[in-house]
Specification:
Blueprint (H helix, E strand, L loop, with lengths): L1 H14 L5 E4 L4 E3 L4 E10 L4 E3 L12 E4 L5 E3 L8 E3 L8 E5 L1 E10 L6 E11 L1 E2 L8 E11 L1
Parallel strand pairs: 2-12
Antiparallel strand pairs: 1-3, 3-9, 4-8, 4-11, 5-10, 6-9, 7-8, 10-12
Length: 151
């Protein structure tokens, strides 16, 4: 009987390791030194799951946050998230504000007027809390890099 309990725990623990959100790799973005360009990042959320909005309805839930490492060459504006959708988990009476399926976030990037021509790597991270119809999981992070060509 102890083996059966262990097997159930192992399946549950391993399901926590599945990638619930994946970034669709953007192609290289070009920007002229001293000018700005819009960058769109697209994240795919696994079927049957959603992630909390950047401004969740419940203060106890963890918002989706997009951050970038500081760069002397490329300035990153504030991310613009789409409108969230309402979702009600089974057995609850309150709607959550969530993102599902595909999440597209728009960001304005500006190359410094003194930016060196060539390829620059912009490192970012998406912090999110995924849920299914029954429960929410521990928060996770996706680290990614976008190649920016300064001309």
């Amino acid at each position: 009987m102890g083996l059966l309990l262990f097997a159930r725990f192992s399946l549950s623990a391993s399901s926590q390791q599945l990638p619930l959100v994946q970034i669709e790799r953007p192609s290289s973005v070009s920007v002229v030194a001293g000018q700005e360009q819009q960058l769109t990042l697209s994240f795919t959320i696994s079927n049957g799951y959603h992630i909390q909005a950047n401004q969740p309805a419940d203060e106890n839930l963890i918002p989706t946050v997009l951050t970038f490492a500081a760069s002397n060459q490329i300035n990153v504006g504030s991310p613009v998230f789409p409108a969230p959708t309402k979702f009600r988990m089974l057995g609850t009476e309150e709607d959550l504000l969530v993102f599902g399926d595909t999440l597209e976030i728009k960001i304005r990037i500006t190359a410094s007027p003194l930016a060196e021509n060539g390829q620059h790597t912009l490192k970012g991270e998406l912090h999110y809390q995924a849920c299914d119809s029954f429960k929410c999981y521990f928060p996770r992070d996706i680290e990614f890099a976008v190649e920016v060509q300064v001309e």
